[in-house]
Amino acid sequence: MNFRYIKSANTNQLVQNFYELNVAETSIPLSSKIIPTAQSHIIFVDSEEGIETNFKSITYKSLGLIVLGQSYKSYTLKAIKPYFNFGISFHPTALYKLLKTDISKFTDKHIDLSKVDSPLYSLLNPIFKENLKGEALASKIENQLAKLDIYESKNTILVDEVIKVIYEREGIINVEELLKIFPISQKNLEIQFKKIIGLTPLKFIKLYKFLCLMRQYESNKATISQLIDYYAYYDFSHFSKDFKLFMNLKPADYFKTENKFLSNYLKE
């Protein structure tokens, strides 16, 4: 299995990064938990059988170009055949700016891009038939996306500014503090976040903070005890509650096992 991130060369706040994954026969069958990254994605899957993702009782079979909406909890990825996966990880507001539609309808869903937006599918699909990989593929995608008209409004600008603060604080902030910084009511902020991002402000903050902690841990930058303190969890019990919420797994069960795919996935 070979997983790596590819940096975005563009500064237009659409694409935050790309990732490329090659799963060989030696890694099959594959079954792994995936932690949401507080982003929406468009991914390309090339395989004989496609891949499966499971949300609660719903199973999605993904092959070709797929829209991945926001998710609040981890989900399971399974593959029974080798596959190639190239992902476009968008800035939280980017999919809304591209599709110009309520993004919450994609939350916890993986949907064929051709069924979501035919023009965008027609723009991107030919690129993946050129047999490009890595940085060359990422560059071609960014060049194509740069041709699109991006929807901007006072609400997208506001939400972008709120996200910037959440990023700067690494999720160590609450909604009440945000309301003191920005001229918006809590109800309207929730409406705009859900429509533009696909998650409420509270869920986005909690998820992003947890993601930051897990990335620090998997990068061996600190111990769990140090990270629990840094990210302002009251105690291990509070952290454990969030861990089970996002991972559907006890911390002890995660930390005593090795998950190469998830570990690489978290090392941005």
Automatic annotation (TrEMBL):
Query: Which PROSITE patterns is this protein grouped with?
Result: HTH_ARAC_FAMILY_2
Under InterPro entries, the record lists: DUF6597, HTH_AraC
Give GO terms: molecular function aspect only: DNA-binding transcription factor activity; sequence-specific DNA binding
Q: In what residue span(s) does the HTH araC/xylS-type domain sit?
A: 157-257
> Cross-referenced Gene3D superfamilies, in alphabetical order?
Homeodomain-like
Q: Name one Pfam family in it.
A: DUF6597
Q: What is this protein called?
A: Helix-turn-helix domain-containing protein
Can you name the source organism?
Olleya namhaensis
